[in-house]
Design a protein that fits this description.
Elements: E1 10-13, H1 23-41, H2 50-57, H3 62-72, H4 91-109, H5 115-126, E2 130-134, H6 140-147, E3 155-157, H7 159-165, H8 174-183, E4 190-194, H9 197-205, E5 210-214, H10 220-225, E6 230-232
Parallel strand pairs: 1-2, 1-4, 2-3, 4-5, 5-6
Helix pairs in contact: 1-4, 2-3, 3-4
Length: about 240
């Protein structure tokens, strides 16, 4: 019924790009952040691209995304601290700049939830499966509330939880493993749903029972290469015909 293997007791969902259509909002905020940063250093610098977002930023904790993208451009910044303001020329400062822009985008445009994902969440709950959101976003609580699907989620592991518990970000499996613990299941009893390459790699590294890649941007082959057992364009595809 759900298109999942036997023995699965829980579903661990990435949020942005899987449940909510906020990946484009994140991309827009990152692009404004990085383009401004790069041009301040070099007016001729190439713009931040969708491919760079997919490869270096998507699915990762904010500071890791800043560090990895800038390293790809040969740029190293001081780490700074999480208390840095958005004008600080540090890894955390650039990350704070992005978050200011993201919150502005969310405030102006709200949160759009994928209808097919809501259908799948409802079907999973009806089938007795436990559910958790596992996201690198530090705004996980706000996005779930704004999306109106909090009643379909049993647990949440977000950037705030990861920082408090010292969990490594994706592609390390720590946050998904924490989600499984929160639901009282083993990794083998849980399925990971991810649209980010780092996320499917985390699902594979954690030896979860099944890893579903959600292809929103035409990277099905890359999702499979990074560890997805199956790739769908929408979670409703797993439910079969109406």
């Amino acid at each position: 019924m759900l298109g999942l293997p036997d023995g699965i007791r829980a579903c661990l969902f990435d949020m942005d790009g899987v449940l909510t259509r906020t990946a484009t909002v994140h991309m827009a905020a990152w692009k404004r952040t990085f383009d401004g940063f790069l041009r301040a250093r070099d007016p001729q610098a190439a713009e931040f691209t969708q491919d760079e977002y997919n490869r270096f930023v998507d699915g990762k904790p904010r500071a890791d995304g800043v560090r990895d993208f800038l390293a790809s451009r040969g740029i190293t910044l001081p780490e700074g601290s999480p208390d840095d303001g958005p004008d600080a020329e540090t890894v955390h400062g650039v990350g704070q700049r992005k978050n200011v822009l993201l919150l502005r985008e969310l405030d102006e445009h709200g949160v759009e939830v994928y209808p097919g994902s809501v259908r799948f969440l409802e079907a999973a709950r009806a089938a007795g499966l436990a559910t958790a959101v596992v996201t690198a976003s530090a705004n996980g609580e706000q996005v779930v509330a704004a999306g109106g699907f909090g009643d379909l989620i049993d647990a949440r592991v977000d950037g705030v939880v990861a920082a408090a518990e010292g969990l490594r970000g994706k592609p390390a499996p720590d946050t998904f493993l924490a989600g499984a613990r929160a639901l009282g299941v083993t990794p083998a009893e849980a399925v990971v749903f991810e649209d980010a390459l780092a996320g499917v790699a985390a699902g594979r590294a954690g030896e979860f029972g099944y890893v579903v890649g959600v292809d929103r941007v035409g990277q099905a082959d890359a999702l499979r290469e990074n560890g997805a057992d199956v790739v769908v364009e929408d979670l409703a595809d797993l439910l079969g015909p109406n």
